[in-house]
Amino acid sequence: MSNLSWVRGINATIGWVAPQAVANQMRRQFMTPRELPPRDWELPLLAQAERITLRFGLSALRWGSGPTVLLMHGWEGRPTQFAELIKALVQAGYAVVALDAPAHGRSPGHEANVVVFARALLEAASELPPLQAVIGHSMGGASALLATQMGLRAEAVVSIAAPSRILTMLRLFARYMGLPAQARAHFVRLVEEKAGMPAGHLDVARYQLDFPGLIVHAADDPVVPYSEAQAIHEAWFDSRLLRLEQGGHQRVLSDPQLVQAVMQLLAAQRQASSSELAS
Predict the structure, then answer these.
(1) Using CA atoms, how far apart are residues 122 and 125, in angstroms rounded to an integer?
(2) Where are the domains of the chain?
(3) 215-236 burial string, b = 16+ CB within 10 Å, else e?
(4) How distant is the alpha carbon of residue 263 from its chain centre?
C-alpha cells in the first residue's frame, strides 16, 4: 500500500469519529508549503538577480530597469520558475520584481493562503513604481485577481494556470485526502477562518475585472482543470484566453507561446498609453 493510500485510509476512518481533529490536521497541511530547491536551469538567472527586502519583510528578486512588472509564483513555487518570461521582459526594457510569497523562500511566515498572497502583492505594489503588469501562476494568478478587488492597480494582469474558485480547489483537496463529508465541511470552515474570508467570496464570478488581461492555461493541466480558465475568461470581459495543448501545470511557464502573448499584451498597453498621452 502506498503512503498516500495509507493516509487516505486513516483520514477516512478517523474522520468519522473525530472529523474536527482530522480537518484541523489537513488544514495545517494545506496551508504549510514545503521548501523546494531551485532546479539547475534556474540557477543562472538567480545569480543575476538583485535580492531586495520590502518594508514588511517580504523578500523579492529584481532584474532590469524600466516600467515595472510584478510577478507572483504559485504554491511551493519560486520566482525563477518564470525564467523564460523574465529574460524576455528584461530584454524588452522592463524592470521585473518577483516576490517570494509569504512562507516561501526568504519571506517570513510558516503558513499561507490565497488571501495572504494577495495582501503581499498589495504591500509590494505600495513600494514600487506604478505597475505595468502583474503576472501570477497558479495560486499566484488567483491572488493577483483577488488583489485587484482589494485595491491593486496595474495596466494589465496575466493569470497562468489559476483556479477561478478557491472553494473548488478546497473540495478537490479534501476529497483527494480521503476526508469524509463532515470532515470536509470542517476543513473548509477552518480554512475560511484562517484566511479571514468566506471561500465562496473567492470566486472570479463575483469580481469586477475592469482591466485588460491574459489568461493562459494548458489543456493537459493535471492540477487545475482547463475549465477553470474558461470560467475566468467568461467573467473577465477584457481578457484573451490562450489555450495550450500541452504544458501541464508547471512547464507552461516556459512555453514560447506564453512569452509571446505576454509581450504582445504589454506592447499593446504601452501603445495605448502613448496614444492617450499624444491626444
Answers:
(1) 5
(2) 1-30+166-201, 49-164+206-278
(3) bbbbeebeebbbebbebbbebb
(4) 19
Percent of the chain that is helix, strand, coil (3-state, to 5): 50, 15, 30
Spatial contact of 132 and 71, defined as CB atoms under 8 Å apart: no
Exposure letters 61-89 (e unless 16+ CB within 10 A, then b):
bbbbeebbbbbbbbbbbbbbbbbbbbbbb
Q: What is the pTM of this model?
A: 0.93
Strands 59-63 and 68-72: unpaired
Structurally, at CATH architecture level, domain 49-164+206-278 sits in: 3-Layer(aba) Sandwich (3.40)
Question: Which amino acid does the sequence have at 95?
Answer: A
Cell of 95: 524592470
Taking the C-alpha atoms of residue 135 and residue 148, their distance in angstroms, rounded to an integer, is 12
Instruction: Please write the tens of the pLDDT for every residue from 135-182.
Output: 999 999 999 999 999 999 999 999 999 999 999 889 888 888 888 888
**What sign results for the dihedral spanned by CA atoms 115, 188, 103, 83?**
negative
Rounded to an integer, what distance in angstroms lies between the CA atom of residue 49 and that of residue 79?
A: 10
Cβ 70 vs Cβ 129: under 8 Å: no
Per residue in 215-231, pLDDT tens?
A: 999 999 999 999 999 99
pLDDT tens for 235-274 read 999 999 999 999 999 999 999 999 999 999 999 988 777 6
Does residue 133 contact residue 152 with C-beta atoms inside 8 Å? no
